[in-house]
Design goal:
Elements: H1 5-19, E1 23-31, E2 34-41, E3 47-56, H2 60-65, H3 85-101, E4 111-120, E5 127-137
Parallel strand pairs: 3-4
Antiparallel strand pairs: 1-2, 2-3, 4-5
């Protein structure tokens, strides 16, 4: 079966997290129409719900903009802009359902939402990965 660009991006994001001492717990958790791409624990034990967005840089100009991208970037098609407030709220609610379903004590568990952008180079042989904190629950 042929892997999609999105699936490839999620693989890259998981590898990135593991290299940064995260433990992957679950991938592609679904509730109704909402999905959490990756559930993991960071090196300090915080439960992380990670949204992954993959974009292909089709022009040299796009490839050169990657290092300047922030969540507030004006770069058309930036992965960071795909996670608006509504999407973040859906992920947060789905994260709570994940915890309830898996008997995780949400009142005593530190959690955070993260976003990973995977920018695939035009030749599909390399990627630039950026990670952003969307929100944190300070328990």
């Amino acid at each position: 079966m042929k892997q999609t660009i999105g699936e490839w991006g999620e693989e890259q994001a998981c590898s990135f997290l593991v290299r940064n001492n995260y433990k992957i717990i679950c991938r592609n958790y679904r509730y109704k129409k909402t999905e959490i791409d990756i559930v993991a624990k960071d090196e300090s034990g915080v439960l992380c719900f990670v949204e992954v967005k993959t974009r292909v840089c089709r022009t040299w100009e796009d490839q050169n903009k990657i290092d300047e991208i922030t969540p507030e970037a004006e770069f058309d098609g930036s992965a960071e802009r795909a996670d608006n407030h509504k999407k973040q709220l859906l992920i947060k609610n789905t994260a709570i359902l994940y915890c309830l379903e898996n008997k995780i004590d949400i009142d005593n568990t530190r959690m955070k939402l993260e976003h990973i952008s995977v920018y695939v180079r035009k030749d599909l042989k390399s990627a630039n990965i950026k990670k952003f904190l969307l929100s944190v629950d300070r328990r």
